[in-house]
Amino acid sequence: MNVPCVRVPRESGEAARRRLADAGLLDHDHEITVAEGTLYIPVVDADAVPDDLTVVDYEPPARETQTTPADLLGFEPSYERLGDIVILDEDDPDRAREIADAIVASDLKAETVVNRASKVKGELRVRDWDVLVGDSTETVHREYGHEFRLDIDTVYFSPRLATERHRVVEAIQEGEHVFDMFAGVGPFAVPAAAAGAEVVACDLNEAAVAFLRENAARNDVADRLTAIHGDVREVAADYEGWADRLIMNLPHSASGFLDTAVRLASDDCVIHLYDIQHEDDPFGPGLAAVRAAAEPAYEVEVVNEYVVRSYAPHEYNVCLDVRLTKRA
Fold this sequence. Notes:
- The protein is an alpha/beta fold and 328 residues long.
- It has three domains: 3-58, Alpha-Beta Plaits (2-Layer Sandwich); 69-136, CATH 3.30.300.110; 158-326, Rossmann fold, CATH 3.40.50.150.
- 24% of the residues lie in helices and 34% in strands.
- The strands form four sheets. A seven-stranded mixed β-sheet has the order 13-12-11-14-15-17-16.
- A hairpin with a 2-residue loop joins strand 16 (298-312) and strand 17.
- The longest helix is centred in the N-terminal third of the chain and has 13 residues, at 93-105.
């Protein structure tokens, strides 16, 4: 069976493999194959592969020695990987325990297995967990060559947004002023600084900001990243007119901070506004909110309308990229 593979010369294979592994893109169900001096590295998401790598369809052999949780359970369980934590979302505690036991008995590398015990809640966007295996909810997550230490018990982090974060960071130019208004542990802010931007990153969650500072140092960008614990509405007074790019990743409520975003915006500023909206009009409400906050002082131009993922039946998590240009 053909699967997407990165094709590279054999001598460049290890460097490419490491990049793909850091981004969480390796397909561990198929073998890396060498043919006539060319290496074929199976990947799980062809669209997320960096543009400088070539993706082709190829038929590598399946790995026969790996025992998966599905092999032991007789069905394919649903889970997410975050560093060495495996995250389940099971309503039945007995089924969750069965899956956790199968994960431990399989070849899947995991130090901790947790089951979601609540929805994301409160201003700090955290949730409760049932820890089924292990005794720590801390981990180090690797994404597109960067490392993020975090504790899922005290901060919010979604590995599902890796491709979207990479999309935004790829648009950043060296020397830009980037303001991440709801930064968390830094999955936007750290790569933005690594891309050469000057970054200010703010969050209301004190634990998240502590991890953010650690992650800036861990990824060698502390000299270009200022991490601030506080409400961005209060922080904005020190950065009025500063931002060339604003990241507003707070779905459900980011639109309520657009007045603050306009205060932060320079004369030419791109805003990445994340929202949850009904499929009938996923971008209209966000655009109307941007216009209400920015006009007539700014001209508002839609740069991109992007569906990030399905959020719930008939609802999408979307990103609206808009450019604000100051009117004379």
